[in-house]
């Protein structure tokens, strides 16, 4: 059993017949990867992972975790809106143009429209940034 | 007739259950046959484990809470109100605003409350990190202590075989205190004394509530020059003399008394009168397999408010929630409740400020302690800041 504090004596671990049997199995399993040098890629990957772990600090984890939450939040809220809108749209008769325009009396519909217009504005502003190519200096 | 499922408590248990319930019962909800309602007494959802980090100046308030409504799927009807009385036999509950709600199924996830006032002198002289403001006060002390003694005590509920909240928290915070004081350069002038009561659930004279972890702790503590003592059950604190007295007849002085205080269920649960717990602690008598309230099969209990021998932890809620949802969905559709909770809990313990130790256990199998690692620490930090909110939204 592993313990949090006391590593087992390495010699005893190696002398253990279970360790030897496990290593033999592992060698067999790894042989194709070893013989074709493909194991090197896995080792390189491990070493890159290990570098990343060494480099990761509190600030990095905070940023990554926040990015994760923001991306998940965006996908989740968009999914929620899509699900609820499509359920209502699918379960009702298609509205007449008059009924459709009456939907604008609903302040939340107007808020949604306002949101879409704002979103278009923000997209437009970002697109404009792309358009400006500064002069070479 | 439309069936109503009411979930009380917008903490981690109630929130993930509401979200996953509407997902599971999507068809019935769309056909208007079922309504899922969440009643909570706060418009905010707090990530409670972060209070522990507040005590070490590692978290701002805005980072550890979200507006409850933003965590819920739109199919959940959310009501901010406090349940004042449960009438389990009438399947009805009453709220502070004067409203009452009848239900077909009820899920109670109202958590527990620290109750330092249950030990004489503890509220005045002790500190803890189980709520935001007390954790801030403790942070102020840990930030400024220059010399003296930090004394750590753990109090278990008086109800037999019920644990205190988040079993590993006292060890986590003891190791964090050690590391913080080392960073501050005052560790050699501040003694840390960790104590544990004579009775911890089924164990006697240990340093932790599970035997294998208890066995590795002396080494972990000695390596860090943390002093420890078994058999100290906090009975009374003398705030003027700054001395803690145990029911075993021992006394210890302190400069900071960092306690895991007594806990209890919330008032509405205690007042429901169904609890068999000692000292009016109020734990709900819960069927350990189906999670139904004993004698009331349309009521389910989860999280910190149950009387089970399992950790009062978010990791327990995460495993209890699918069982409850499955049982309610099966009962609605087929009149049976086949899902069974095996007592599973998983967590990543924060071992000091940087390292972490993933762990899991259930009714039959205790935690197998493994060496804490930086990878474990990174997993915990990512969970704290990001994955938790996805879990609450029912995505993980
Ligand atoms: C410092 C600390 C560290 C922790 N560390 C960990 C950890 O590392 N891992 C882990 O898994 N767990 C940890 N926990 C435990 C975890 O936070 C709890 O077990 C979990 O929050 C319990 O969930 P719950 O839904 O039962 O109750 P809670 O999350 O406490 O939620 C209860 C909700 O009910 C509401 N409520 C209460 N009474 C009423 C009423 N009468 N009417 C309406 N609403 C009401 C409350 O406002 C609250 O929203 C820790 C806890 C603390 C305090």
UniProtKB/TrEMBL annotation, chain A:
<dbReference type="InterPro" id="IPR012440">
    <property type="entry name" value="DUF1641"/>
</dbReference>
<dbReference type="Pfam" id="PF07849">
    <property type="entry name" value="DUF1641"/>
</dbReference>
<protein>
    <submittedName>
        <fullName>Uncharacterized protein DUF1641</fullName>
    </submittedName>
</protein>
Automatic annotation (TrEMBL), chain B:
<dbReference type="Pfam" id="PF07992">
    <property type="entry name" value="Pyr_redox_2"/>
</dbReference>
<feature type="domain" description="FAD/NAD(P)-binding">
    <location>
        <begin position="4"/>
        <end position="143"/>
    </location>
</feature>
<dbReference type="InterPro" id="IPR023753">
    <property type="entry name" value="FAD/NAD-binding_dom"/>
</dbReference>
<dbReference type="GO" id="GO:0016491">
    <property type="term" value="F:oxidoreductase activity"/>
</dbReference>
<protein>
    <submittedName>
        <fullName>Sulfide:quinone oxidoreductase</fullName>
    </submittedName>
</protein>
<dbReference type="InterPro" id="IPR052541">
    <property type="entry name" value="SQRD"/>
</dbReference>
<dbReference type="InterPro" id="IPR036188">
    <property type="entry name" value="FAD/NAD-bd_sf"/>
</dbReference>
């Amino acid at each position: 059993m592993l313990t949090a504090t006391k590593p087992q004596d390495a010699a005893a671990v190696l002398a253990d017949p279970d360790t030897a049997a496990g290593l033999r199995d592992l060698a067999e399993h790894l042989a194709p990867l070893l013989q074709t040098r493909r194991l090197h890629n896995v080792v390189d990957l491990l070493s890159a992972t290990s570098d990343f772990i060494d480099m990761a600090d509190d600030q990095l984890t905070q940023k990554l975790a926040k990015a994760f939450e923001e991306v998940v939040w965006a996908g989740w809220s968009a999914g929620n809106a899509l699900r609820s809108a499509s359920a209502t749209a699918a379960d009702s008769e298609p509205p007449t143009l008059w009924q459709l325009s009456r939907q604008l009396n609903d302040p939340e519909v107007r808020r949604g429209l306002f949101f879409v217009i704002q979103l278009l504005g923000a997209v437009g502003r970002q697109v404009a940034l792309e358009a400006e190519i500064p002069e070479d200096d | 007739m439309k069936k109503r499922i009411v979930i009380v408590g917008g903490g981690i248990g109630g929130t993930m259950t509401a979200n996953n319930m509407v997902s599971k019962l999507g068809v019935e909800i769309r056909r208007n046959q079922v309504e899922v309602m969440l009643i909570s007494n706060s418009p905010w959802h707090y990530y409670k484990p972060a209070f522990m980090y507040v005590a070490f100046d590692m978290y701002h308030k805005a980072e550890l809470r979200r507006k409850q409504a933003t965590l819920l799927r739109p199919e959940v009807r959310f009501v901010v109100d406090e349940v004042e009385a449960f009438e389990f036999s009438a399947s009805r509950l009453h709220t502070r605003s004067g409203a009452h709600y009848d239900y077909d199924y009820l899920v109670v996830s109202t958590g527990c409350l620290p109750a330092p006032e249950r030990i004489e002198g503890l509220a005045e002289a002790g500190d803890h990190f189980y709520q935001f403001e007390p954790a801030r006060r403790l942070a102020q002390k840990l930030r400024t202590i220059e010399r003296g003694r930090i004394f750590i005590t753990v109090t278990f509920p008086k109800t037999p075989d019920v644990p205190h909240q988040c079993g590993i928290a006292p060890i986590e915070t003891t190791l964090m205190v050690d590391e913080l004081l080392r960073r501050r350069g005052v560790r050699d002038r501040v003694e840390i004394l960790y104590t544990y009561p004579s009775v911890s659930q089924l164990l006697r004279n240990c340093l932790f509530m599970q035997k294998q972890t208890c066995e590795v702790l002396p080494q972990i503590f000695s390596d860090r020059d943390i002093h420890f003592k078994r058999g100290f059950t906090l009975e009374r604190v003398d705030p003027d003399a700054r001395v803690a007295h145990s029911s075993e007849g021992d006394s210890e002085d302190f400069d900071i008394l960092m306690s895991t205080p007594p806990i209890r269920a919330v008032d509405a649960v205690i007042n429901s009168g169904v609890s068999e717990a000692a000292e009016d602690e109020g734990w709900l008598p819960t069927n350990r397999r189906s999670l139904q309230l004993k004698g009331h099969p349309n009521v389910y209990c989860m999280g910190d408010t149950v009387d089970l021998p399992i950790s009062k932890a978010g990791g327990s809620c995460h495993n209890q929630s699918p069982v409850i949802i499955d049982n309610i969905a099966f009962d609605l559709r087929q009149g049976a409740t086949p899902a069974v909770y095996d007592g599973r809990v998983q967590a990543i313990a924060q071992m000091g400020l940087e390292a972490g130790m993933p762990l899991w256990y259930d009714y039959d199998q205790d935690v197998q302690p493994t060496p804490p690692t930086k990878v474990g620490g990174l997993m915990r930090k990512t969970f704290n800041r990001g994955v938790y909110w996805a879990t609450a939204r029912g995505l993980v």
